[in-house]
Amino acid sequence: MTTEDSENDRTPVDKPADKRRTWLVGIAEIVGELLITLAVVCALYVVWQLWWTGVQSEHQQLEARASTSWSNPGSGDTRKVAKPQKGDPPVQPKQASEGELMAQAYIPRFGQHWERNVVQGTSPRELAYAGLGHYPNTQMPGQMGNVAIAGHRAGYGEPLGHVDELRVGDAIVLRTKDYWYVYHYTRYKIVAANEVSVIAPNPYSPNQAPDRRMITLTTCEPKYTTATHRWISWGEFDYWAKVSDGVPKELLGDRGSDVAFADDKGSVMARLGSLQPVFLVLVAAYLIIYLAALAAWRYPLLRQIRKGEKPQPMISLYGWLLRHQSGIAPIRWLLLILLLLALACALMEWGFPWLASNVPMLRQMSNYSTF
């Protein structure tokens, strides 16, 4: 038998083996692509949970402030110190409806730009997007007793994400339409999630009448996992002042560390508040470029593969998507990028909120629960 005959005899045996290897490699590549895709989706979910929900919360708070007739404490002479007033503080507001803006909170320890709305109620929607929520059955600012306020510690702008950094004596300031109420931080306590005595009128002695004016901040513990407990921060009242007189000295720090009062404009993303316009722009750009490239070049890569000018490609999910875009190579890559960006926007705008609302594990991780 000649060498040529020997090679011909081996050919039918080698080809099926090559095909099997090709399929195995292709399947492995698809599995790898799916795993990478899953990792990217998980990373996007974290971005949505820890960043984008905060942007949406800021947007809602900006809109709430814009709808009121409250003066901006940052306008005019912000260096003017409001004179502490004597006597019992006025109570404001005397009552508030569910979801109504009743105060703004400032805690300098949390940074110059930390400012949050306080609305009436602690429903999941209010805590997620309105800032901080006031427990309806607790006292109003100025009343004898306990002004109890709840807020998220992770996600949704994490308004109380840094309660563990509070130090004894730190200022906690509430501003209503006409008055400032200045408290100082005293201590904290970690309690079970169903321990409601911490928001009683007298949280130190729940069975006794209140003998002082207090503020209580409640948030989730631990921070980034299922919240089995609550982190309770207490403060006691120092004094009250008039908004028309200026700003409390606690908000006017040294060496340029003054609180930077919101100008009700916010960041570009906060003013946007939704990814739907971005999604629509991406889809429109994709369709325009796709149709233009289709008219100019059609599908040159697929044509070359069919004619045998290009080898048959390996099995690949993203390779298939890339090949089926119209136009030359740079245009195909641009179209694929636009398509993936539009998909990412759709996930963050509609997909992830649905998952957080309907998947039990994700619903728990979203820290929606309150007392």
Structural commentary:
- Residues 64-98 are annotated as: Disordered.
- The chain crosses the membrane at residues 23-48, 278-297, 333-356.
- Residues 66-75 have a biased composition (Polar residues).
- The structure is a single chain.
- 39% of the residues lie in helices and 17% in strands.
- It is of the alpha+beta class.
- The chain folds into 2 domains: 59-267, Sortase, Chain: A (Beta Barrel); 274-371, no CATH class.
- Helix 2 links the parallel strand 2 (115-120) and strand 3 (132-134).
- Helix 4 packs antiparallel against helix 7 (329-358).
- It is elongated and about 90 Å long.
Total separate domains: 2
Total strand segments: 8
Walk across the major sheet and give the strand order.
1-2-3-4-7-8-6-5
Estimated radius of gyration: 30 Å
Number of helices: 8
Task: Please bin the fraction of helical residues.
Answer: 25-40%
CATH fold-level assignment of the largest domain? Sortase, Chain: A
CATH hierarchy: architecture of the largest domain: Beta Barrel
CATH class of the largest domain reads Mainly Beta
User: CATH superfamily name of the largest domain?
Assistant: Sortase
What oligomeric state do these chains adopt? single chain
Low-confidence parts, pLDDT < 50 over ≥5 residues?
A: 1-14
Largest sheet: 8 strands, mixed, barrel
Shape: elongated
End-to-end Cα distance? 88 Å
**Strand fraction:** 15-25%
Region (Disordered): 64-98
Biased composition (Polar residues): 66-75
Transmembrane segments: 23-48, 278-297, 333-356
GO molecular function: hydrolase activity
